[in-house]
Write a structure and sequence with these properties.
TIM Barrel
């Protein structure tokens, strides 16, 4: 059943996290240290305290992912090496730190926290562990502040993309986000769009769901809505070198969405005359997807057909460590992948996208 590549795995979604905000204190300016001590942070979600995803699993973590020396899952590099990097023979892993600094009500505080997280990642993760790369954490709803942070740290070779969350204040094709895309294009970086976010908006079009199960299932719809926004708002026309990675949103929804977009574009393209190509062409050239959490059809061969529809060169393997729905690379798919596809998904595609060195 094992489907590992022989030459080493590239894991495109690993979550690190500061043990506490005190860990970020050395990386904050004195002004923001005082602010955090006196007033604390305030992220844009309806819970005064706690972690909103999901309530059934603290910190959304595997039960075995809590470091033995204390701290939340993802806070210990040594434990990550022991539990993930070494056993899987990982060549490279991409860190996606889901710190709430990206979604602060106070945009300036959010920018300061994001900068602190990025400096913490360099000092305590990237420099000690050469197998790791990281996403630049940005206050993505503030385009100008995000662009400034991307420009500040993009030259560090450990950063391979900028990170947004899929639930944003507005659809992400809008002008407020264009400085993010311009900065990513200017620095030769993809933008990763990850599951989650504290936008203050429900994932449903008609109100808040009753259960986490509803919210979690509907997140794939949030990715669809955001991709529609990127295409029809003309982001890929304005930023022709931009690459977008949809992280932890599933994959099987993409082909039927693209079919629908193409059909409606034929009927209504006069509304968006600045678009000169079919939506499917923009998606094929600009969009990548991570596999976790991959769909599991009753007939496993159907998943391979979905991969072929998406484009086998656009799929990136991810474990989502240390979260509760972690995908073991030996068991991630309902059937073993064919040899060529296995090499692409587990290693080659990510090496190409992120410009990783050959080992």
């Amino acid at each position: 059943m094992a489907t590992l590549v022989k030459t080493g795995l590239v894991d495109c979604d690993i979550h690190n996290y500061p043990a506490s905000n005190a860990r970020l204190r050395p990386y904050l300016a004195e002004r923001w240290r005082r602010h955090m001590e006196r007033f604390g942070a305030r992220s844009r979600h309806g819970l005064a305290e706690g972690y909103p995803y999901p309530k059934s699993a603290p910190q959304a973590a595997r039960v075995d992912a809590w470091p033995p020396d204390g701290g939340p899952p993802g806070s210990s590099l040594a434990f990550m090496r022991q539990q993930l990097l070494d056993p899987l023979g990982t060549s490279f892993g991409v860190l996606n730190c889901l710190h709430a600094g990206a979604s602060q009500v106070d945009a300036e505080l959010g920018a300061a926290l994001c900068s602190a997280v990025n400096d913490w990642q360099v000092a305590e993760w990237l420099e000690p562990e050469p197998r790791l790369r990281a996403s630049i954490v940005i206050p993505f709803d503030s385009g100008d502040l995000s662009a400034a942070e991307i420009d500040r740290v993009a030259e560090h070779p450990g950063f391979v993309q900028a990170l947004m969350l899929v639930r944003t204040l507005e659809p992400i094709g809008r002008r407020r986000y264009w400085p993010v895309y311009e900065a990513c294009e200017r620095n030769g970086l993809p933008v990763g769009i990850h599951f989650g976010g504290y936008s203050g908006h429900p994932v449903s079009s008609s109100g808040w769901p009753s259960y986490y199960l509803e919210d979690h299932t509907s997140m794939a719809m949030a990715f669809q809505a955001q991709l529609v926004s990127l295409v029809f708002e003309g982001v890929f026309e304005r930023f022709p070198d931009l690459q977008v990675v949809c992280i932890e949103g599933g994959v099987a929804w993409l082909p039927p969405l693209v079919w629908r977009m193409d059909r409606l574009f034929h009927e209504m393209h006069d509304e968006v005359p600045e678009l000169h190509r079919l939506p499917s062409e923009y998606v094929r050239e600009h969009v990548w997807l991570t596999t976790q959490p991959v769909e599991e059809p009753d007939r496993p061969e159907q998943l391979i057909q979905v991969f072929e529809r998406i484009g086998q060169d656009r799929l990136l393997f991810a474990t989502d460590y240390p979260h509760w729905d972690y995908d073991d690379p030996a068991r991630a798919f309902p059937a073993p992948l064919p040899d060529g596809l296995r090499e692409q998904v587990y290693r080659a595609n990510a090496m190409a996208l992120y410009g990783l060195p050959k080992l």
